[in-house]
Design a protein that fits this description.
The protein contains 10 helices and no strands. By secondary structure, it is an all-alpha fold. The longest helix has 39 residues.
Length: 249
């Protein structure tokens, strides 16, 4: 493990130890926050009981489906917009102001169109995340050095081979940044939709525990979401570092 990773781990450990100390000494009341060790114990108990397995599977499945849809759809739309300068000039101001729109207000529309269940939640997550992937795709395609395209023309590569062998690898670090954002926004979109609008899933379970003053359960589930998001983000960061290193060779 690199030195930076050890420092990062030490910061997290010190933060958790400080929270633990503040909770154990009652400086932070148990009605507000429970010690991290109690969260971990409660989380293990929930996982061992299996009472929320269906909700856990549902939430992480929805996040995975949303992230995949966003990555594919965002990339495809980004490529189309990049290939049409007049279209790009028209939509770029809209993309820049996109996140001023509260996407959760479209939930009733998605229920009418897609019915009750996971589909409207996934649709909200896709709506929330797709512009980040489109923007990353445009950024990646913009940053491909012209010398690479000239080399492809010199070797008389077809348009398809140029895209697959030259442009896609050259833009991959930027595209992967879009994938990382897609995953992050999918987490936010799915958990927040379940918290506010759904009757199942981890977000709903957290909201239900909150409304019934079940602090141990609520914080245990929040810890689960935090650990899952951190693990996924760490994995994606590791892949990103490898891509960046290969780009510099």
């Amino acid at each position: 493990m690199k030195r930076e990773a050890w420092i990062r781990l030490l910061i997290v450990a010190l933060f958790a130890a400080a929270i633990e100390l503040l909770c154990r000494t009652k400086i932070i009341p148990a009605t507000v926050l429970i010690p991290p060790s109690d969260m971990a114990v409660a989380l293990v108990a929930i996982l061992r009981s299996g009472e929320l397995n269906a909700d856990i599977v549902s939430t992480f499945s929805n996040i995975l489906i949303a992230a995949v849809i966003v990555a594919v759809l965002g990339f495809a739309v980004g490529v189309v917009i990049h290939a049409m300068p007049s279209l790009r000039a028209a939509v770029e101001p809209l993309l820049a102001s996109y996140y001023a729109v509260p996407t959760f207000m479209f939930y009733p529309v998605f229920i009418v169109l897609l019915g009750v269940g996971s589909a409207p939640i996934i649709a909200i997550a896709v709506l929330l995340a797709v512009v980040a992937m489109i923007t990353a795709t445009l950024d990646g395609l913009d940053r491909i050095p012209n010398v690479l395209r000239k080399t492809a023309r010199m070797y008389q590569l077809s348009r398809l081979r140029t895209s697959l062998l030259i442009e896609l690898p050259a833009a991959s670090p930027y595209l992967f940044t879009g994938v990382k954002l897609a995953v992050a926004y999918s987490f936010i979109g799915v958990i927040a939709s379940e918290f506010i609008l759904s009757g199942s899933g981890l977000g709903y379970a957290i909201a239900y525990a909150y409304n019934n003053f079940e602090n141990r359960k609520m914080y245990a589930l929040m810890l689960l979401v935090l650990l899952a998001a951190t693990a996924v983000n760490s994995l994606l960061n590791a892949i990103d570092v490898r891509l960046q290193a290969r780009q510099l060779r």
